[in-house]
Structure formats: structure tokens, C-alpha cells
């Protein structure tokens, strides 16, 4: 798929971190971009800066997501590219010590369900709505109509203590890729996922000032290069997957060769 001004894209979580880097890279390639994000202030500011369309979207709400796609398509046409970076998840151990009672407590089913909605259900929701719109497009070379790129995590394979929800549900995202790609193969829509390791996004960058020793330890935990990933490196991979029409139903781990220990 040749990336140029004839194409439209939707990037969820596009107001910060990996999503923002992807928005910038797509705009540099000339692609029209709609930013889906819950944060209106930063979303509007970034959209104005890079020349994108901002749609305030809550990925936990079907109505909000549908309204976002409707607004994006009205502004810039049907998207051929979806990069889904947004996520909502709760941390917690399956069973842990309860400091208040001295006994034990478990991560609640409700907290797990919230994570399931924000990781796995949201990924299906957004990908399937995008695919439905792409299906009606005229095919490009090789019969391609669109590219869907989901964001998984290295934690899908190396889930740490306190990541029972996040790790298992990102593994579910991995498991979605092949059957969805097969569902959509006759429509010419590709489905892939990226599994980032530790990246220098706002949550991690907070440690740089708050706890420099911990931040340095995170850098040193990466085999090579000994640093956190740059959001631009994620975006570069996202664009290559989008460009290369022979990449389909694949999982790409980008992590400097790190393998997470239990904690």
C-alpha cells in the first residue's frame, strides 16, 4: 500500500505515546489522519499542529467509537488504515496480601472485566468497525482494501506479577490476529499486531525525574540497545507493516531482545 495523500487513517490513542508517534509518521508520509483519543485538550492541540482531524472517543463505549468513525469519515473519507494503540487496563495480582485485614484478597472479577473491555473487547470493536467500512472500498493493487494494525505487548508472552489481566488479554489480542485476518482475506483487508516492550512513553518517562535509579535500571534491563524504545521506532515499524502488502496475520515483537522476569 503506497502511503500518500489519497489515503486516510484512524489512530486510536493518537494524542500521546506510541499513537502520537504513529500520527506524526503517517502525516509525514502525507496520509490524512483522524486521532481518536479521550483527552480533548491534547488531542485538539496535536491535530492542529500536524494537520489532523480530532475525534474525542472513549474506546469503552460502542456509541462513542461509532460516532468517532462517523465524524472521521465525514471529514476525510473512509479510512484504509487503522492503527489501534489506545488501552484501558487495571493492574493487580490474582491473590495478594491484604494490608488492612492481614489476610488475603483477590483481584476482583469486575476489575478483570474492565480490563477485558479496555484491551480485548475494544480491539475487536474498533477493528471490526474499521473493517466493515473498508469492505466497501474499491480495491487497490493485489485487491487490497485496508490494513488493520493492533497493539499487543511483550507482556502477552512474558506477563509479570500484577499483570494477570493485562498479560492474558494482550495474549487474546495476539490470538485475534490470525482468525480475523482469515475472516477478512476475501475482502483484501490485512490484520497484524505489534508487541512493544518497554518504551519511552509518558508513564515510563515519569520515572526519569521521580526515580532516576529505577529509570536507569529499566534502561539496563534491555539487552541491546540498553535503553527504552523510542516511540518513533514503533511508528516506523507500524508504517512498514502498513506499506508492505505481503505482511498479513503476523505478530511483531519490538523490544531490544528483553524477556521480562517474574517481577
Automatic annotation (TrEMBL):
The UniProt keyword set, sorted, is: Oxidoreductase
Q: Which SUPFAM superfamilies match?
A: NAD(P)-binding Rossmann-fold domains
Return the Gene3D superfamilies for the record.
NAD(P)-binding Rossmann-like Domain
Q: Which InterPro entries match?
A: NAD(P)-bd_dom_sf (IPR036291), SDR_fam (IPR002347)
Name of a matching Pfam family: adh_short_C2
Any single GO molecular-function term of the entry would be:
oxidoreductase activity
PANTHER family hit by this protein: 17-BETA-HYDROXYSTEROID DEHYDROGENASE 14-RELATED, SHORT-CHAIN DEHYDROGENASE/REDUCTASE
Q: What is this protein called?
A: 3-hydroxy-2-methylbutyryl-CoA dehydrogenase
Provenance organism: Sphingobium yanoikuyae ATCC 51230
